[in-house]
Structure formats: structure tokens, C-alpha cells
Write a structure and sequence with these properties.
With 198 residues, the chain is mainly α. The chain contains 7 helices and 3 strands; from the N terminus they run ααβββααααα. A hairpin with a 4-residue loop joins strand 2 (87-89) and strand 3 (94-97).
Length: 198
């Protein structure tokens, strides 16, 4: 058999380059999908509660006046009569948000930088991408081979639950990204002291 006709094996470096290119293309495609489909608007109680809380924090406030119709004595009614979901009475005429403050703080920081119309969408897309990417170094830190770590990232990104929670303004995906980063820093701080200060 003519050795010149034998298949030449692909060098490992070339295979790695192709794999990185495919993963990069998948990440770009995933980001584009999220960017076009995300709808981080003030819809139901959770999303509106987070945005209302963020607006208050951006103005240095933790409470706001209740919207009580003129001519009505609020003292004669239940304290929650004019309180929307996501708030609680702070006084007879004021109300304060009840949702955890982490996501509103992030929105309050991003809002002035990129407008309030873009900040929620950007935060959700960036959080989903960060959470998916962080699955790889977490897998490697846990001792998984490179292929299984990549599979873990892809599995997380392709999960219907991840997609569902990434396309609306909810704290689940940002919290997952933050927790993954914290776990990774804690894990690596055992051998690299700089991670303990991250």
C-alpha cells in the first residue's frame, strides 16, 4: 500500500485550535440568541420589584410614599391596601421593597452607565454567559478532564431552566454566576493566595 495515500493524523495542536474555534462560535451564538430573546422588563411582581428597588437605591432611598387616592383615609384600611407586590408598609404612608438587595444594587450601578432601558438586558445576558463559562474552570478545579468540563458548561447553557431564567429579570442566574465565581476563588485560594482577596 502506498504510504502517501495513508491518512495523515491531525496534530493535537490543530485539533485544539478547531475545538477552541467551535467553542468560541458556540459562545457567540449563545450570546446572540440571549441578546435577541431577552425580555428583562418590569412584568410580574419579581421583575417589577427588582426594578423598583433598583430605582430607589439609585436615588439613595430605601422607601417611597404609597400612592393613596385623594380623599381616602389609609388608617381606616388594611396596611397593605395600597402596597404592590414586592413591597411592605414602612409607615402609615410609606412602603419599602422586600426583595433581596443584590440584583437591585447591580442594576442601580449599571443603570446610570448604560441607561435603564439597557441595563437589565445586559445584566441578564452577561450573567448567563459568565455562569456558563465559569462551569469550565469549576469542573477543572474539581478534577474533571477538559472534555467533561466543556460538556458541563454546554449542559448548563443548554438547560431549558437556564434559558428560561436568563431571558427575564430574575436573580437566579446572576446569583449562580456570583456563587460560581466565589466558589472558584475559594477553591483556588488554597494554592494562590491572591484569590482569597478576590
Amino acid at each position: 500500500m502506498d504510504s502517501s495515500l495513508a491518512a495523515t493524523p491531525t496534530p493535537p495542536a490543530r485539533r485544539s485550535a478547531w475545538a477552541l474555534a467551535l467553542l468560541g462560535a458556540a459562545l457567540v451564538g449563545y450570546a446572540a440568541f440571549l441578546a435577541f430573546q431577552v425580555g428583562a422588563y418590569a412584568g410580574q411582581s419579581d421583575s417589577s420589584g427588582y426594578l423598583n428597588s433598583a430605582r430607589l437605591l439609585a436615588h439613595g432611598q430605601t422607601a417611597v410614599a404609597q400612592r393613596i387616592p385623594a380623599g381616602i383615609n389609609p388608617a381606616a384600611l388594611d396596611s397593605y391596601t395600597f402596597i404592590p407586590l414586592g413591597f411592605r408598609p414602612a409607615s402609615a404612608v410609606a412602603m419599602a421593597p422586600t426583595y433581596p438587595i443584590g440584583l437591585p444594587l447591580a442594576l442601580a450601578a449599571l443603570g446610570p452607565l448604560m441607561t435603564w432601558a439597557l441595563a437589565p438586558h445586559f445584566l441578564m445576558v452577561a450573567s448567563a454567559l459568565a455562569a456558563a463559562v465559569l462551569m469550565f474552570p469549576l469542573g477543572r478545579a474539581a478534577g474533571l478532564p477538559r472534555s467533561w468540563s466543556v460538556f458541563g458548561s454546554l449542559l448548563f447553557a443548554a438547560s431549558p431552566l437556564t434559558t428560561f431564567m436568563s431571558l427575564q429579570l430574575m436573580s437566579d442566574v446572576p446569583a449562580t454566576a456570583a456563587a460560581s465565581a466565589a466558589i472558584l476563588c475559594a477553591w483556588r485560594s488554597r494554592t494562590h493566595r491572591a484569590y482569597a482577596r478576590s
